[in-house]
Amino acid sequence: AQSVAQPEDQVNVAEGNPLTVKCTYSVSGNPYLFWYVQYPNRGLQFLLKYITGDNLVKGSYGFEAEFNKSQTSFHLKKPSALVSDSALYFCAVRPTASGTYKYIFGTGTRLKVLA
Amino acid sequence: DAGITQSPRHKVTETGTPVTLRCHQTENHRYMYWYRQDPGHGLRLIHYSYGVKDTDKGEVSDGYSVSRSKTEDFLLTLESATSSQTSVYFCAISGAPGQGGSPLHFGNGTRLTVT
């Protein structure tokens, strides 16, 4: 079965330190990969995506993500965390098989940035 | 936010009653999705639509039906609400998921409580 795993329910990091939120996936072929952020009582907001090309992709608010095909991972990173980055983060995958329009989400990782 | 409006934003209903949630978009996007968000489960796909009157099931479709009679509206109906359907429901849209990895854009959600 196709799936997305976010192994950490919560990640704590001090303000100013680098952060990493992990994501691995089990999807055949070459799926499209996405990161979203959710603030309280809001819908998910798109941060960045990987389609093809450079393994390091840059997105909104200083976030970037590193794609590793051999490890089927797509980890979200930021060089210097801000308290305002505290939120719930979701990794998502869209298989690229013909006729597939579904997006599969992980269970989410709560990021807490401590002042 | 993309032009997506979900209504109502909050609803409390009794077990056994039918409930309809509405998603309205002004982006003229072809693809529309209904997800539910529950702690520990992340986002799970209920149903999606790939065009007017074209819909398909997601991973948790039992007890739900959908309709899409025009591009801008996607309705989710709980035929006979149960307490297990207490959740936050999100509508999402996408312009062209098969072209360049178009991301999903989300509404702000409907919080449904079934008593």
Overall outline of chain B = globular
How does the major sheet of chain B shape up? 7 strands, mixed
Largest interface, C-beta within 8 A: A-B, 24 and 29 residues
Order of helices and strands of chain A: EEEEEEEEEEEE
**Which class of secondary structure composition applies to the elements of chain A?**
mainly beta
Secondary-structure element order of chain B, as H and E? EEEEEEEEEEE
Q: How many beta-strand segments of chain A? A: 12
- Head-to-tail CA distance between termini of chain B: 31 Å
Largest sheet of chain A: 6 strands, mixed
SS summary, helix count of chain B = 0
Overall 3D shape of chain A: globular
Low-confidence stretches of chain A: none
Task: Give me a quick take on this structure.
The complex is a heterodimer of chains A (115) and B (115). With 115 residues, chain A is mainly β.
Textual characterization of the structure:
The complex is a heterodimer of chains A (115) and B (115). Chain A has strands at 3-5, 10-14, 19-21, 24-26, 32-38, 44-50, 56-58, 64-68, 73-78, 87-94, 104-105, 109-114. With 115 residues, chain A is mainly β. In chain A, a hairpin with a 5-residue loop joins β5 and β6 (44-50). Chain B contains no helices and eleven strands. Chain B has strands at residues 4-7, 10-13, 19-25, 31-38, 42-51, 54-57, 64-70, 73-78, 87-94, 105-106, 110-114. In chain B, β7 and β8 (73-78) form a beta hairpin. The termini of chain B are far apart. The model of chain B has no long low-confidence stretch (mean pLDDT 93). Chains A and B meet through β5, β6, β10 and β11 of A and β4, β5, β9 and β10 of B.
Furnish the topology, listing elements before pairings.
The complex is a heterodimer of chains A (115) and B (115).
Chain A: E1 3-5, E2 10-14, E3 19-21, E4 24-26, E5 32-38, E6 44-50, E7 56-58, E8 64-68, E9 73-78, E10 87-94, E11 104-105, E12 109-114
Parallel strand pairs in A: 2-12
Antiparallel strand pairs in A: 1-4, 3-9, 5-6, 5-10, 7-8, 8-9, 10-11, 10-12
Chain B: E1 4-7, E2 10-13, E3 19-25, E4 31-38, E5 42-51, E6 54-57, E7 64-70, E8 73-78, E9 87-94, E10 105-106, E11 110-114
Parallel strand pairs in B: 2-11
Antiparallel strand pairs in B: 1-3, 3-8, 4-5, 4-9, 5-6, 7-8, 9-10, 9-11
